[in-house]
Structure formats: C-alpha cells, structure tokens
Amino acid sequence: MVQKAKILLVDDRPENLLALEAILSALDQTLVRASSGEEALKALLTDDFAVILLDVQMPGMDGFETAAHIKRRERTRDIPIIFLTAINHGPHHTFRGYAAGAVDYISKPFDPWVLRAKVSVFVELYMKNCQLREQAALLRLQLEGGGKAVGGAKESAGLLAELSARLAAVEEQAEALSKQLDDESADAAAVATAAHLERKLTGLRRALDALEPGAGSGTTSVSSQN
C-alpha cells in the first residue's frame, strides 16, 4: 500500500488553512496544519513533507524567516516551498521570496486549480523519490551480500528480477512525468527536480544491470540516495 505524502500548510489565519484544505483535499494526501512559523519548524523535526505552502505575513516569525530556518537545516533544505501572500509590493518583494528559497510565489486570491496543479507536481516528484530510495536500499543490501541471497542463486535471481521490475515501473512513471512537465512548461524548479530524479534512476539501473549474470565480476557501488 502506497503511503500518502504529507503537505505542510502554514498560515496564522484558521479560515485560510480551511480554504487550503478544501482546495487540496482532492489530491488525497495528508494535510498538516501549522498556525505559525515556530509550529511549522516543530512539525518539520519529526515528519517528512513533499511540499510546504507558507504564508508570508504572520505575526512573530514571518514566512521569510521561517523559510530561512527551513533552508538552513540539512533535513529540510530540499523541501519545495510555495509562498502565499495577500499583498504585492512589486518585483522586489517577489525576488525576496525566491531569494529565501521558494520555488514559487503566489499572490492571493489565487486560482485553486493552478495551486492544486502546482502542488500535485511536487507530490508526484516526492513519491517517485520515495520509490527510488526503496529500490536503492534493496539494491544496496544485495550488493553488500556480494550478489548472493541467503537462499542461494535461485533466490538471488528472483530478487534481481523483482528489483528490475520495480525500477522499470518507476522509470516509466518518471518519464511520463517529465513529458508532462515539458508539455505544461512547468516551473524551472520542478523540471530540475525531475531531471535529478532521472539521473539517479539511470545510476541505479546501471548498478542493477551490473549484478546480472555475465555482467562481469567488477565491484559496483551505489551511492546514498537523498
């Protein structure tokens, strides 16, 4: 059973959080509320999130300061941040949002369909990365065992076949997602993330192919998938 992705919604106004939940409920993912920057940072200590929707104007720690803390933490620095703001102070204000590490900066009121589409792209990328890490972990176990499963060559061949099939499914989904991003002229950050995912898939496929019978006796290593 595929685990749902978590989406962090950060806004000091309960009515805004309720509106975001109504818009994103169709994605059928886990929506987590935070009513302040401090509360958001606390949630990020224990859970992994696919994307963060972050209000700019909040009392105390505002969105820019919250984003700065998120980007300084190794655990959370790669989580995409979409800034939401009810005001527009011009290009300088927008630039500050991107400089703080946001992948997008959306002014309220926003189009619900556009917001949902943008969030869904990052959820898909997150899910593909989770699948890739799972395949990498299985492959790493195989490599550490010298290419031999506990039960012998038959079990080893079976595991390799299962790994190859799973990886092929992820490769197919990643390719479809990349084509979708190209067709929709998606955000540069989303395109770059998809390209990074494809590079990791290519490396994992090469390592897996090297384990196939007759592929040679050289040592193959798999780097840690982040």
UniProtKB/TrEMBL annotation:
Keyword line: Coiled coil, Phosphoprotein
Modified residues (4-aspartylphosphate): D55
InterPro entries, alphabetized: Bact_response_regulator, CheY-like_superfamily, Sig_transdc_resp-reg_receiver
Annotated GO biological process: phosphorelay signal transduction system
Keyword Coiled coil appears in the UniProt entry: yes
Pfam families to which the protein is assigned, alphabetical: Response_reg
Residue stretches in coiled coil: 153-187
Record carries keyword Coiled coil: yes
Chain ranges of the Response regulatory domain: 6-123
Record PANTHER family: RESPONSE REGULATORY DOMAIN-CONTAINING PROTEIN, STRESS RESPONSE REGULATOR PROTEIN 1
Protein name from the UniProt record: Response regulator
Organism: Streptomyces lasalocidi
